[in-house]
Automatic annotation (TrEMBL):
Native organism taxonomy: Eukaryota, Metazoa, Chordata, Craniata, Vertebrata
Organism: Chroicocephalus ridibundus (Black-headed gull)
Residue intervals passing through the bilayer: 6-22
Keywords from the named record: Membrane, Transmembrane, Transmembrane helix
Protein name: Opsin
Transmembrane listed as a keyword: yes
Top-level taxon of origin: Eukaryota
Amino acid sequence: NISFGGFIICVLCISIVFISSSQG
């Protein structure tokens, strides 16, 4: 069972990695 806070952190981490790889 993943808490809402943990879900937000996961989304933020994935977004940061995606943006970082996108910008090179």
